[in-house]
Design goal:
Blueprint: E1 2-10, E2 13-18, E3 22-27, E4 41-47, E5 50-56, H1 57-60, E6 73-79, E7 82-88, E8 90-98, E9 102-104, E10 115-121, E11 124-129, H2 131-134
Parallel strand pairs: 2-11, 5-7
Antiparallel strand pairs: 1-2, 1-8, 3-6, 4-5, 6-7, 9-10, 10-11
Length: 141
């Protein structure tokens, strides 16, 4: 069985989210800052009448600070009725990955609640994110 993954880049590395959590992919929209929010919460956007919190995924994963370019995109995700926009450097593509091509987080050297595993597809190494754990924090809302 294959899984559909939205692949994207952060700090030169390739990451992926299961497409079942992706509502849409948008260009970077004007963000309204929210006082006293954690550093990785960039603020909120108005997306077609819905107010959606926006996270800088690089900051959330404690990577280098992102520089926004014309390729920067927002991945709008939805988990348990909560919509959140994730800022990523660039969308790569949507790919099918066989389940057997995914090494789970528990069997790899990476141990973090934010990672689901590592997929190898056509010579590419894609770090799969666990979006449910990524958004499971009271600070997101």
């Amino acid at each position: 069985m294959n899984r559909k993954i939205v692949a994207f880049k952060l700090n030169g590395e390739e990451y992926g989210l299961d497409i079942q959590y992706v509502q849409s992919i948008e260009q970077l929209l004007p963000i309204t800052r929210v006082p006293n929010a954690p550093i990785y919460v960039k603020g909120v956007i108005n997306l077609r009448g819905n107010v959606i919190p926006v996270l800088d995924l690089s900051s959330k994963l404690t990577l280098n600070q992102a520089t926004y370019t014309k390729f920067t995109r927002l991945i709008i995700t939805k988990v348990e009725e909560i919509e959140v926009g994730l800022i990523v450097d660039q969308i790569s593509d949507v790919i099918d990955i066989a389940e057997e091509a995914i090494e789970s987080e528990s069997s790899s050297a990476i141990h973090s609640e934010f990672f689901e595993g590592i997929a190898i597809s056509d010579g590419r190494i894609i770090i799969l994110l666990n979006v449910e754990e990524l958004l499971k924090t009271e600070e997101v809302i």
